[in-house]
Structure formats: structure tokens, C-alpha cells
Amino acid sequence: xxxxxxxxxxxxxxxxxxxxxxxxxxxxxxxxxxxxxxxxxxxxxxxxxxxxxxxxxxxxxxxxxxxxxxxxxxxxxxxxxxxxxxxxxxxxxxxxxxxxxxxxxxxxxxxxxxxxxxxxxxxxxxxxxxxxxxxxxxxxxxxxxx
Length: 146
Prior knowledge:
3 helices; 3-stranded antiparallel sheet; 146 residues; alpha+beta
């Protein structure tokens, strides 16, 4: 999907060295402003953590190990997709962390501004990472600059 931002969803953090078909980390957000979840008294939520995985020719062992620990989701693995591609599919992720917050307000509330320095204070960079230019960070964090 790559790094991107939009009014209601985006992925401002995509970390990887390009050595594999999938990044190491992805930070993704989605605001459900246009499609709120409505309920009267109570709400029960179940989160399914799935992800698309790609395996290249020569990664048969990796695919077999992944299939053994990650139950298939969607319509299963797609194989024989052409030169260089062994398989791709959607599977239950067992290596992911996610957080979900539900906020319900009777009236509009101000959202405190985020400073990039405080948001990244406890996150270490990988050896291959280069800091993003400040103008890119400002565009992602400051909606007024878009």
C-alpha cells in the first residue's frame, strides 16, 4: 500500500529495507466519521487481524512455515501467478499488534496537536532508516498544510 494520507485514512508509517515483499512495520489509521458505528445500549467488538502475504519463488519453506502458524483468511492462497511469484494470500496475523480506540462524544471536542518529537521519543530507528524530511512530517501531522 505504501505510505499515504487522506482525510479519513492513511499509512504515515511504513518501515522496511526493501529486502522482502512486506515492510517490517506499518502504522495505519482510519477515522469512521462518515460511517459511524451506531448502538443504543451496548456494543461488542471482535477484531480480526489479517494481512496479505506474498511469497516469491524459492520461498517454499517460508510459505510452508507461515501456513502452519497463520490460518488462512478470505479465499485462501493464490498460486501459479506467473514468473517469480510462488503464492499470495490473506491470513490471520500472529505477529501483529494493534490498538483500537472508540470515542463517543455528545459534542465536538478539540484534539490536542501532536508534536512529531514527542510521538517518536521512544521509537528507535532501524539501521537502514533515513529520517523523513520535516516538510513531509508536517504534511502528515498538520492537516491544514494539505
